[in-house]
Amino acid sequence: MPDLLLELRSEEIPARMQAKAAGDLKKLVTDALVDAGLTYEGAKEFFTPRRLTLNIKGLTARSADVREERKGPRVGAPEKALAGFLRGAGLSDIAEAKIQSDPKKGDFYVAVIEKPGRDAQAIIRDVMPGIIRNFPWPKSMRWGAASAEPGSLRWVRPLQSIVCTFGTEIEETEVIDFEIDGIVASNITRGHRFHAPEPFTVKRFDDYAAGLEKACVILDAERRKHIIRDDAANLAFANGLDVVEDEGLLDEVAGLVEYPQVLLGEFEQDFLQIPDEITRLTIKTNQKCFVTRKHGDDKLTNKFILVANIAATDGGREICHGNGKVVRARLSDALHFWHVDQRDLPDMDGLTASAEKFGLDLKKPLDQRMAKLDALNVTFHAKLGSQGERVARIRALAAKLAPIVGADAAAVDRAVVLAKADLRTEAVGEFPELQGLMGRKYAVLQGESDDVAAAVEEHYKPLGPSDVVPRSKVSLTVALADKLDTLTGFWSIDEKPTGSGDPYALRRAALGVIRIILERGVRLPLKSVIANTLQAPFVPPEGWGGGFIGDTMFEYFVALSGGGYGVGEPDRKAVVSTDIEALANDLLSFFHDRFKVYLRDMGARYDLIDAVLSPDADDLETVARRVEALTKFLDSEDGQNLLAGEKRAGQLLAAEEKKKTRVAEKVDPTLFETDAEKALYEAIVSASAKAREASVKEDYFSAMEALSALRAPVDTFFEEVLVNADDEAVRANRLALLAMIREATGTVADFSKLSG
């Protein structure tokens, strides 16, 4: 069967777009061919900075003939119905249709539509221009004289040539010669821009890839990555160094070169006084180079690995020199930022009020930056106030969380007021991804405690499912306060995540709170914390002209959003209280959704989570422990016994409740008629007491073990007792006995939600 080779060669494609573009090309072409009736054995996409390539193996040479019978209206139907049928079937006269009979519906018209198959070459020639013209680039451009014409070709960079060949391995291939804006598909391509710019002819993929290899182009991106990784490691090792690995940078660099040549650059030792994180980001961001360390040392060296796209005749000396000049210039800027951030600000006079508000020491550089952040009234969000106001909110919330977490209150307060200060530093202004980390370094330099400095960095954590959770109690407290303030604030202004977007990373914030609670064992009553945060007294900032009427944080958020409560004082407070309750419930429900996702990712069964997680459950650490205990218990014989017994009792009780059969409010032992009733009652009372006692001690596994003793008396009860007795009082009493079983097991889980 024939193969198809397609290459789209252009000017340099941005590295970040290459992999997706190659995947899009594969999908668009294969989908179009399949829709046209062709099949194929396999397809593989490739990409370099200057080309997208697709190799389709085993493509059918021709689409199959198609015969379709299309049912039409009844014989004698109105003219309009017949005309519509003829148009849809492509017939010119009703005489061209057949008449078929149906015993029930009578005679009706049937059109027989026959479509002969088409050669694959014709199909490819038809579909390719549309795919290329409408290619889904994130950004595209027009170029040349043709760009002035409406409908001219748009591409990510100027498209230079198209290769499109079709044929079997043993026959001569055929060029499928479609044309787009003067570019005619051919079997001619070019290699490396400098080392092998001459055109050469290709037939099929094997000789195409081999020809590119000779022309100094490594087609496979993964192979380019391996070459860069291995050559960099070998070159570094030969100089007594280790490369600091960076998979993202490796992907990017592999998308910048077709013929990777690894070299070693150098900068002055004086720049090593800059923190390693700044050095690494400077060299990575501006020059796409890798930094190095000495063997067994964490400190960076003044050597860096660069990847060129040409094999220079001088061994790369000029390339290294040129890259070194740029790196030195960038590091000079970084060194300047580093020194400036440790100096006093030039305009200290206007910072006194802010310093007093937050208890800042204006002799310290980081304190000055926090005072500046507040004095400038830098906006956090238009509807949530300034960064200074946000720090004040986090500070108040952290003070309430500190005793819950068990953190030192003074350290927590100090960490909160410094946590956002580095947002006004030059280093973070240049590299926003260093926020927190630079704050920690500057905090250490000005003599802050280890706990405070760590909290300044770690209060952003965890930043995702794979990021670490803070360990110190001070860091945990500040991190919780920061995330809970974010969530309550955006919930108050009704800026919640949607199915298509989460611009403020609220899902990540909620997951961060959940991971802190579960991985660090924090017992946090979420709903009450949320409600208390929104009900906290609030005094609007001096000079605020928003017409604020109210005395709670929630009312302030509403006012900032352009809303308000135009009712009398008693009515307003009642409405506000109701709104806060509804908002707290809604946010708790959001936490539950993220909590379920987290537990499922950890391997928990969805039905076990649902059985334990009630709508008002806000101690997620306890819920997680109950899910863990339930999972372990149901794997045992006792667990299966308890589940079977509860299911049997619960299903019968639910059926009777659905019929609205009366169930006694409580069991009356004087109405027992059998020993089985009495034995079950006594077993429930005993097991419930033991389960409650174990639950109080948070020994949920023992609570379930105690309840598992109900299986035998439940079975005996159903074997010897007719629940639906003729006597209405006896029947209601026996149903109440079953309700006691449900109530007893409900102390640990809702067994009706368990499968099995």
From TrEMBL:
Keyword Aminoacyl-tRNA synthetase: yes
Subcellular location: Cytoplasm
Keyword Nucleotide-binding listed: yes
The protein's Enzyme Commission number: 6.1.1.14
Record's catalysed reaction(s): tRNA(Gly) + glycine + ATP = glycyl-tRNA(Gly) + AMP + diphosphate
Domain DALR anticodon binding positions: 648-743
Keywords: Aminoacyl-tRNA synthetase, ATP-binding, Cytoplasm, Ligase, Nucleotide-binding, Protein biosynthesis
GO molecular function: glycine-tRNA ligase activity
Pfam families: DALR_1 (PF05746), tRNA_synt_2f (PF02092)
Matches recorded under InterPro entries: DALR_anticod-bd, Gly-tRNA-synth_bsu, Gly-tRNA-synth_heterodimer
Main location group: cytoplasm
Annotated coiled-coil segments of the chain: none
Family: Belongs to the class-II aminoacyl-tRNA synthetase family.
Record's subunit section: Tetramer of two alpha and two beta subunits.
Protein known as: Glycine--tRNA ligase beta subunit
Organism of origin: Martelella mangrovi
